[in-house]
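Key result, reporting period 2: structure in, sequence out.
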């Protein structure tokens, strides 16, 4: 017994304290000498971050092809997401639909990554078009629209492998390792040219280009732009009508208008119907022949109907210029109206 009745045994207490200090010290020493434990997780390999994206120029005109150079400067094969273009909108970057490399209406099997061989330079092109697919019909249709002037860049992400190629050649981690951005570049508005002039309607809020020569005195009466309550005419065959959609969506309105047109002009047959873009909006163009076409755009409950309609023959097609080396056709006027029409708001 450490304690006796009526008397404290200090000798035994001292022995216990000394032994406790010795044992505690040994345990603490051993704990400090133990190796640090680490969680048993798979560690991603360190990437050689040497992939760069650049453009062949810093400024482009609307419609000009943009060259994209993706360079893998490293000694290993790298993988990146398929590159896309971003536009600067309200001080924020927003992606443009459709990639540079792969733009079809199909999805390849497996993971969608772009392999970059070691120390290689890869060149691609962007046609300044935003692309998307629609499954409205049985077959997928590719739609596209021209982008507007502004500031752009190309972006992608580098991807890492978890296992070596010998272990599993298809095992890509799928985890973003690092974002890659190209230099910023500018697409400039071409504006008026030597042959075309901008018509702008501030009240309704739109603009489009038409031939400058139509404003010349000898052509103005027949070919100049004329404004009416619900429509505008350019030349002798081209017009733009603005009508209430009466609650119909774009497809419903096109079907209704096409049926009414065919009943009125039974000699015409539809040659083609295709999805297009006007002012960045989804539109539909119906062709009854090269000089008989209609394009439809729905905006804020109103239908914008673009027409070229030929019954009596064109009256505003002619040669012009100092040596009469230039020629204007009304189908060219129609196509120019569609490609340059822009909403101001």
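The corresponding designed sequence is given below.
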């Amino acid at each position: 017994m450490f304690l006796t009745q009526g008397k404290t045994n200090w000798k035994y207490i001292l022995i216990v304290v000394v032994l406790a200090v010795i044992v505690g010290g040994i345990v603490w020493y051993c704990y400090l000498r133990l190796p640090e434990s680490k969680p048993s997780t798979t560690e991603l390999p360190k990437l050689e971050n040497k992939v760069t994206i650049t453009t062949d120029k810093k400024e482009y005109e609307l419609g000009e092809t943009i060259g994209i150079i993706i360079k893998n400067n490293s000694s290993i094969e790298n993988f990146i997401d398929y590159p896309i273009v971003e536009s600067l909108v309200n001080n924020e970057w927003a992606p443009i639909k459709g990639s540079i490399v792969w733009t079809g209406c199909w999805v390849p099997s497996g993971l969608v990554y772009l392999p970059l061989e070691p120390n290689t330079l890869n060149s691609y092109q962007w046609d300044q078009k935003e692309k998307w697919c629609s499954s409205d019909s049985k077959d997928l249709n590719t739609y596209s629209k021209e982008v507007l002037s502004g500031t752009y860049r190309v972006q992608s992400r580098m991807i890492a492998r978890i296992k070596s190629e010998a272990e599993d050649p298809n095992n890509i981690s799928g985890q973003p390792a690092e974002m890659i951005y190209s230099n910023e570049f500018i697409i400039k508005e071409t504006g008026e040219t030597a042959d075309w002039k901008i018509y702008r309607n501030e009240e309704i809020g739109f603009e489009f280009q038409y031939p400058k020569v139509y404003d010349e005195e000898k052509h103005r009466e027949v070919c100049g732009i004329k404004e009416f309550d619900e429509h505008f005419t350019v030349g002798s065959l081209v017009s733009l009508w603005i009508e209430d959609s009466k609650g119909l969506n774009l497809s419903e309105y096109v079907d209704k208008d096409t049926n009414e047109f065919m009943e009125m002009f039974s000699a015409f047959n539809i040659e083609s119907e295709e999805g297009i873009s006007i002012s960045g909006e989804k539109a539909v163009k119906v062709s009854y022949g090269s000089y008989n076409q209609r394009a439809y755009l729905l905006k804020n409950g109103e239908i914008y109907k673009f027409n070229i309609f030929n019954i009596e023959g064109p009256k505003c097609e002619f040669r012009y210029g100092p040596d009469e080396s230039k020629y204007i056709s009304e189908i060219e006027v129609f196509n120019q109206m569609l490609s340059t029409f822009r909403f101001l708001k």
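The first helix runs from residue 10 to 33. Helices lie at 10-33, 217-223, 250-264, 330-340. This case is discussed further under Risks and Mitigation.
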